[in-house]
Amino acid sequence: MTAGLRIAPLRLDDADEVAAIDAWVCARADSAPFHRPIWSMAVEKGTGQEALSLVAWRSGAIAGVLPLTLVHSPLFGRALVSSGFAVDGGILADDRAVANALADACWALAESHSCPTAELRGGLLPDTGWARKADSYLGFAKALEADDEAQLLAVPRKHRAELRKGLENGLDIRIGNDVDLLDIHYRLYAENVHRLGTPVFPKALFAAVLHGFGDDADIIMVSKDGEPVTTILSLYHNGACMPYWHGARAVARGLRSNEVAYYALMNHARARGCTTFDFGRSKVGTGPAAWKKTWGFDGVPLTYAMRAAAGQEVRDINPLSPQYQKKVELWKKLPLPLASWIGPHIARGLG
Asked: Which NCBIfam families is this protein grouped with (predicted)?
């Protein structure tokens, strides 16, 4: 029912409204950290891309939320994205009528800002007018075990052997959200994505997310003889731990420090009171997707909705697309300092 329904912009400069929306989002089991206003605000602060979120009101009460980021890039064009720089988000609504109204308002907003395409990354998808795509990404989530030993035994035997090797390597673990940890994490993250052939996001994005989420975000660092080798920046939301940005040096593979980091993070999450470990999304048919399966996680297809203006193609920013393969290989050959300098200017337009 749409009687009495009103769609309005979220006033991010109104602390009371932001707090009310955040409380409504956090009270819902179907929400993600990317639905929280602090995510949209951190993205805007860290990338310069504008937050244009929508709220559905029914008889004065919140009935739905749609976090949006207006992404503009000279290379990748303009798009209205929910949620920007996230793997989830989309429409959070009390019912399908509200979801459809938010989707219509989203497209009207996209047209008013000359965006030829809009993207809804999960959430309650609209019934009509939007194309659905479920063959690009898999999501990996699983309940945490009762204790550290059970968590270890839950890892399939072959991969558990690799994890045990890492646990015997004398690695040190530190967890926090200090500035020095952020500096180390960003350096390792930049190194990691450079090996993959993709540009690094601006450091300001990581800083804004850590500051905005406060105790609901942290970084785990694994070191060998005082040298950091693996870092993970994680988000915590409604009993779930989501390792979101992963950094690692090339030596991490031999040390099995990535295995140690994720195992330690699972145990840390349980100690925080989490019940679910959300390994995040990976592209279908890739090494990261296969690696997550070796941990005993099953991949579930993620369904996104997209819409394009008449005569326009849906925006494609998937680095696995054939049009980007030569660029990816060239990017890998750039010196790391140069890639780290240029990368944020490009990546801020990927959204």
From this structure: pepcterm_femAB
